[in-house]
Write a structure and sequence with these properties.
Largest sheet: 4 strands, mixed
Strand content: 5-15%
Shape: globular
Distance between the termini: 52 Å
Structural class: alpha+beta
Strand order of the largest sheet: 7-6-8-9
Number of strands: 9
Mean pLDDT: 96
Helix content: 40-55%
Oligomer: single chain
Length: 456
């Protein structure tokens, strides 16, 4: 066992709640609230009920709850379907922050659901839920940061680093030994997957990857507990994670730097649904629409300048409606800008099929020309009467240092998710917020789980 794996395993198994700072506690509570809201709002998104019905048909031990719809299934399946619901509108917490650098990620949607499902099965307290969640997220964030991030190899890190984080959470809550958790990491190495092609193609499977990481992490920990063995060094082995799935480990010291003292997490709560890569352009469109009285029929041309990371990926594809309109819209920057110019906002309601298919959206989206810029996002509107409007934005709302959402905004987002879903009562929603805000005082997290079921 390498020093890196050994120290990571030790940190997962031996960290206590008392090691956590107030800042970290505030962050984890905000993200739990955020993910729970996204699960509720995403419950009825395309394909989810089909997956849930499959999980119920499979049957098995009644260990953990399927949120919103109810019913108890094996813990790995509950974590999987709850994670898929969380990702449905691409609205949950994002951006891992390590050593002051933000990395594109979708970790919380896997780790929160894994911790809740495992925690329900194990009858744990709020303190242990928080601790297990944070050590698992720290693992995922460190692995992501140690290799940097890129789209070039086509692996979606939701299906890779998330699985290590889920394995860590499950391993801690199953009380694995050091050797068993090492083996669990080696076992899950054989289950990593997730292609960005699913996003390019607007496929429902884009959100399945997030759930598979939760399921596979739990399965790997359970298998290791029975005595199964796995790769001795899942990260830096001859054919470990960094060799197979990345351009290489740029700095292995990130894996253990300040371990036990600093817990790396995701730090961005999204203000708008849809891919985070769209959000700076959304802010540009909001700025223009708020400052000017525009007639969309008088727009002759729209020019959008974006950095290379945006210009060269799926969000900059032409806006085309395929099998699942909601997914096509969520990952398309042209739709996002067009929706703001037409409706002056971007809400979950705007991802209903009839609104996506509105001819006005297509009319505006087709006028958008996307060009590459060095850093800022710049939106320019040329009107038929010769008047031009333009604005530039360097960072999107929700940026954790320069423009974070306030606690009140995070709570309002949660309540907006509740209102959109119409499944969980407003009374239960308020109780969920109150419980999470005082999670370290909760003796058994089933008190929270019970509020996440539609009782209508």
């Amino acid at each position: 066992m390498s020093i890196y794996i050994r120290k990571m395993v030790d940190n997962v198994l031996n960290t206590s709640f008392e090691n956590l700072s107030r800042e970290v506690l505030e962050n984890v509570k905000c993200r739990i609230i955020d993910v729970l809201g996204c699960i509720i709002s995403g419950a009825n998104a395309a394909g989810n009920l089909d997956l849930i019905n499959l999980a119920k048909d499979w049957g098995g031990k009644e260990e953990a709850t399927i949120f919103v719809f109810g019913g108890r299934v094996p813990v790995h399946n509950a974590a999987m379907v709850n994670s898929v619901m969380a990702r449905s509108y691409d609205f949950e917490a994002t951006q891992a922050r390590v050593n002051g650098i933000n990395f594109p990620s979708h970790i919380s949607g896997t780790t929160v659901t894994t911790a809740l499902a495992m925690g329900e099965a194990a009858d744990i307290s709020g303190k242990e839920l928080i601790t297990a969640l944070l050590v698992g997220e720290d693992v995922a964030c460190r692995i992501l940061a140690a290799s940097g991030f890129g789209f070039s190899r086509g692996w979606d890190n939701v299906g890779t680093v998330n699985a290590f984080g889920a394995t860590a959470i499950a391993g801690r809550l199953l009380k694995l030994s050091t050797k068993q958790l090492q083996n669990a990491f080696g076992i899950v190495l054989n289950q990593l997957a997730g292609s960005f092609d699913t996003i390019w193609d607007g496929a429902a499977a884009f959100k399945l990857v997030q759930g598979l990481s939760a399921r596979n992490g739990i399965f790997s920990a359970e298998l290791a507990k029975t005595g199964w063995t796995g790769s001795k060094d899942a990260l830096l082995g001859e054919f470990g994670y960094f060799k197979l799935y990345t351009e290489g480990c740029v700095n292995p010291e990130i894996l253990i730097q300040d371990m036990g003292k600093k817990f790396n997490t995701e730090v961005t709560i999204k203000p708008y649904p849809g891919c985070r890569l769209n959000h700076t352009a959304i802010d540009c469109a909001i700025d223009i629409i708020n400052k000017n009285d525009l007639n969309i029929d008088e727009i002759e041309q729209i020019e959008l300048e974006v950095p290379a990371i945006v210009h060269d990926v799926f969000v900059s594809q032409p806006f085309v409606i395929r099998d699942i309109p909601q997914i096509d819209a969520a990952f398309n920057i042209r739709f996002s800008v067009a929706n703001i110019l037409l409706r002056k906002d971007l809400k979950l309601e705007h991802f209903k099929e009839e609104l996506i298919r509105d001819p006005h959206i297509t009319y505006i989206a087709n006028k958008i020309i996307i060009k590459e810029s060095k850093d800022q996002v710049c939106l320019k509107l040329k009107m038929k009467d010769g008047i031009n409007y333009s604005t530039a934005v360097s960072f999107a709302k929700g940026e954790p240092v320069l423009s974070p959402l306030t606690i009140d905004e995070i709570k309002q987002k949660f309540m907006d998710n509740i209102a959109f879903s119409r499944t969980i009562s407003e009374e239960n929603a308020e109780k969920i917020i109150s419980l999470v805000e005082n999670l370290e005082k909760v003796d058994n997290i089933k008190e929270l789980i019970n509020l996440m079921i539609d009782k209508n």
